[in-house]
Structures are given as C-alpha cells and as structure tokens.
Write a structure and sequence with these properties.
Number of helices: 10
CATH superfamily of the largest domain: Histidine kinase-like ATPase, C-terminal domain
Number of strands: 7
CATH class of the largest domain: Alpha Beta
Number of domains: 2
Mean pLDDT: 76
Helix content: 25-40%
Length: 241
C-alpha cells in the first residue's frame, strides 16, 4: 500500500511537470489567495523566519487552479525555509507585469502578454549558477537521499506552463533566491493560451514500447537483486514488479 501511494504521488508530480495534470481553473483574486495563506505559512516556516507580504495595491485576477496555486506557493516556502535554517526573511510579492515580444524572444516558454507575477524571495544561502540551470529539471535535488524527490520545483514549473504562464528563478550564493510564477491576467488569458498552445511540442506516438518500473524498497530486495523472468513482468501475480 505504501509503495502504491508513493507511485500515485510520483505520477501526479510527473503529470504536473509534463503539463498534463487535471486542473480546475477559476477566476480568482491572486492577492486574496496569497493573503489567505499567511497564517499557515508563518506556522510552517517557524518563528525564526519573518514572513512579509508585498501585494499589488490593485486587484490581481487570473484564471487558474486555486488549489494548485496554493500548493505551488507552499512548496516554494518550504524550500525557502530549508535554505535558511538559522532564520531570515521570506517575502511573497504580487505585481501586474507585461511581457513584450522582445522579452519573450529571450525564453522559449515565455509568451507576450499581461501576467500576474507571484514572487517568493528568501534571504537564504542561494544557489550557484550550475544548480540554478537545473533547478526546474525533474528529479534534480541537492537534498540528501530520502529527503527530497527533486520534483517540487518541476511541479511549480509545470503548473505555471499548463496555466498558460511560465516560471523563473534567480539566485546567487549568499544572496538568497527568488522564484516567480507568471500567471495570465484575466482579460488577456485567451490570447496567451493561444500562443502557448502553438508552442506545445508535437511528440510522436507509437506502439511496442515497454516501461520497466523498479522498486528499490528493502521489502522488494529479493526480487530486485535476483534474476527476473520477463514473463513474470508481463503477467504479474503478486509481490513487487
């Protein structure tokens, strides 16, 4: 049961990264959503970290999955907490931004349009450039084995892309980290989604492929370490496959 639950969670995170998770978008006020998380965030990060909200003074509306937005922000805040064990400041900021064609040309996943930007900034240890380049990659993690899946930031990246936006990360060693979600602003969503749909890669499909799933839990060691008959993989009858 534990392995099945882990597999389900892993599948959900992979779907998020690949922009294929089921979403329930609705027109929301991003400022209100961020403000509603304030008390929870203070409890999560602890008293040694100061939480500050810097919200846009005008209404910031976007059409996205509110629950997934909250999950993404919680994920980012937990990462920020881990980056500053000795305390510091965590800032959540919202703003309305416009991306023009010149800016969009710099990134493949960036489309011109109007966006609501939600930035999570910490005063933690920061990351070197080589780590920043891989931060959104699935399964990449700097945490010790067993303490991270390497899918937290990739889920955030996938959610932003599936919502018609994008995500960025800026960090330097000793200077903290800022991860920003850009979500299409309500009223400009249709044009942004059309541009995003045109940029979706067209993957070829076929038949005859095989997927091998290997379980590395100790309970499965007798099977994983011994010879596995291909027929047993095709006709599972119990145990770990």
């Amino acid at each position: 049961m534990t392995s099945a639950q882990r597999a389900a969670a892993l599948t959900h995170r992979l779907l998020a990264f690949s922009r294929r998770q089921p979403l329930a978008p609705e027109n929301i006020d991003v400022n209100e959503r961020v403000r509603s998380l304030e008390d929870l965030l203070r409890r999560i990060v602890g008293e040694h970290i100061e939480v500050k909200l810097a919200l846009e003074h005008v209404e910031c509306r976007s059409r996205c999955d509110a629950n997934q937005l909250e999950n993404a922000l919680l994920n980012l805040c937990i990462n920020a907490k881990d980056a500053k064990p000795d305390g510091g400041m965590l800032t959540l900021e919202t703003s309305r931004v416009q991306v023009d064609s010149l800016d969009a040309h710099k990134r493949r996943d960036m489309k011109p349009g109007h966006y609501i930007a939600v930035a999570v900034t910490d005063t933690g240890e920061g990351m070197p450039p080589d780590v920043v380049k891989q931060a959104f990659a699935p399964f990449f993690t700097t945490k010790p084995i067993g303490q991270g899946t390497g899918l937290g930031l990739s889920m955030v990246y996938g959610f932003a892309g599936q919502s018609g936006g994008f995500a960025t990360i800026v960090s330097r060693v000793g200077g903290g980290t800022t991860v920003t979600l850009y979500l299409p602003e309500s009223g400009a969503i249709e044009a942004n989604e059309i541009a995003a749909a045109r940029a979706e890669p067209n993957f070829e499909t076929g038949t005859g492929q095989h997927i091998l799933v290997v379980e590395d839990d100790s309970i499965c060691a007798p099977i994983a370490s011994g010879h596995v008959d291909p027929d047993r993989l095709q006709r599972p009858s119990g145990g770990c496959r």
